[in-house]
Amino acid sequence: MTALAPYPTSVAEATADGMARYFTVEAHRHTCLGEVEAAAVADAVAFLLRALQTYAPAHADRMARVLWRRLDDAPLGGWALHDLRAYGIDPETVLWSALEAS
């Protein structure tokens, strides 16, 4: 799959077009495997990157590099905790809700 649309190996390689291509391939791959949620997420990321190219082309590649850093250069849990607090959502409440649902 990576030969069809390789994922950038560094932030310097990250472009909106390249990452949109990668996530489009990933969306279809997940769809073929019946992984509906992963397909939907990959498709949404590809859609947003393409929308940036259309509606904010001057910022699209910079945002792709920000996305690359977020996905590859930082702990995901740390970003989620940071974002939850920024939205005023208690991370412990999310934790207990997840545990109750499982």
Written account of the structure:
The protein is mostly helical and 102 residues long. It has a domain of 64 residues. The radius of gyration is 16 Å and the shape is globular. The termini are far apart. 15% of the residues are buried. The mean pLDDT is 93.
Can you tag this structure with a few keywords?
102 residues, mainly alpha, 5 helices
Helical content stands at over 70%
End-to-end separation in angstroms reads: 33 Å
Oligomer: single chain
Which outline best applies? Answer: globular
Strand content: under 5%
How would you characterize the largest beta sheet? none
Low-confidence sequence ranges: none
Q: Any idea what the radius of gyration is?
A: 16 Å
Spell the H/E element sequence. Answer: HHHHH
Q: How many helix segments?
A: 5
Q: What is the number of strand segments?
A: 0
Q: Mean pLDDT across all residues, rounded?
A: 93
Structural class: mainly alpha
Helix and strand topology:
Elements: H1 16-32, H2 36-55, H3 57-72, H4 76-86, H5 91-101
